[in-house]
Structure prediction request, 284 residues.
Amino acid sequence: MKIIAIISFLILTSGYAAFSQEKQNSDTKERNMAVAEKGLIKVTVMYPYAEGKKFDIGYYETKHMPMVAGFLGSNLVKYTIEKGLANGMPNQPLPFAAIGTFYIRNLKDYQSAVGPHRDAIRADFANYTDIVPTILVSEVVR
Amino acid sequence: MKIIAIISFLILTSGYAAFSQEKQNSDTKERNMAVAEKGLIKVTVMYPYAEGKKFDIGYYETKHMPMVAGFLGSNLVKYTIEKGLANGMPNQPLPFAAIGTFYIRNLKDYQSAVGPHRDAIRADFANYTDIVPTILVSEVVR
Prediction:
């Protein structure tokens, strides 16, 4: 009986040790993910809304953004797409029809990755919009 | 020797089982976190850059944004702050000095939470900026 008790104890403690180690890794990972955006550079491509202008968000999501993202390699942390709904001030026009954002580690690598494809990227614009975007480069502070 | 081998085997497999179970939970959690922004509403407060205008990003980060965030309760998923660095187009002026963004679950709850504090929020503007912000309400598509 004693040997069984020892075996059981060893099994339980080794299982718990593995669990608690992995739990700790997972907690650290989550904490890292939560703060991971801080310090990143954002390249935010904003399409100002104007009546009569077109913006095909389906094409933008399934074709254009994945194409550009594909040029960026491991410098790209993530990219997001948002659709403008309203102006936050009452009775004001929608400021932007849509916004696409690349979260990158550094701007230099972004520029040299995108540079050789600039013509292809611009040529694709006509497939989803006739709006000239405003592009903001910013740093995530928080 | 045989009993030792069995013990070792049991310890190893029970440890692995615990590890692999937790690993799976952690993978699922990460996947959920990665897609968690999709469908959220963003209230993006954009401060257009203009020469001679002020923006105290320290005050904005430590006082103003936490104050507003504090009104939003569990409707607030997260908020971010970014500092404008440059225009993405060469030889163009910086479009925005700073941007603050609230990621919320729904706009109605945001409006009714902020409504009673509108005067306090506006009164605090003078403590960090003299820029009139543009506010975009948008939906995270991706």
The first helix of chain A runs from residue 2 to 35. Residues 39-139 of chain A form a domain with the Alpha-Beta Plaits fold (CATH 3.30.70.100). Chain A has four helices and four strands. The mean pLDDT of chain A is 85.
